Amino acid sequence: ARLAYAILDGTLIPIDRRADERPYYSGKHKQHGDVQLLADPAGRLVWTSPALPGAVHDVTAARKIGLIDALTGAGVKTFADKGDHGAGGTIRTPFKRHRHRPWLSRGQRDVNRAHARIRAIGERAVATLKAWKVLTKLRCCPHGATALVQAILVLQLVEDSRYPG
């Protein structure tokens, strides 16, 4: 609740799984683990979700975790990508083009451009998480990866507090 705004993003972490465990597999990205994360306005990692199966969509993951209700209850304006379209509450997503409306208006394009500038800062948090070598190729289930992701979050928060910027 102390944040002026937050940036919500999801990322897939490569987990080496057997082929028979299809519910955990994202066919689009050919990977298994999905992690939702929040970044502050400076691009620092603030919060990470438990690791979820790779086939879970971003908005479904945010609802399942209770993240949308928590952010709305705290009144934190949150910027997210098109994967969270329709989340509601205080979650803001860019405008999407529809098949019956082939072009966005000039104002909508300007809003999307400003939205992308804000969200680009949050991509630093994804890069921070993925910079940890231990996440390059895990050999455990997505639920086992949760402990690693949470440990990385704690270590990163300690490191960020050591060097205020």
In percent, how helical is the residue content?
Answer: 25-40%
Radius of gyration: 17 Å
Number of strands: 6
Q: What percentage of amino acids are in beta strands? A: 15-25%
Query: What is the structural class?
Result: alpha/beta
Q: Separation of termini?
A: 21 Å
Describe what you observe in this structure.
With 165 residues, the chain is an alpha/beta fold. Helix content is 38%, strand content 16%. It contains 4 helices and 6 strands; from the N terminus they run ββββααββαα. It has helices at 58-65, 67-74, 106-130, 142-162, and strands at 5-13, 33-39, 45-48, 52-53, 77-79, 91-92. The model has no long low-confidence stretch (mean pLDDT 79).
Give me a quick take on this structure.
The chain is of the alpha/beta class and 165 residues long. It has helices at residues 58-65, 67-74, 106-130, 142-162, and strands at residues 5-13, 33-39, 45-48, 52-53, 77-79, 91-92.
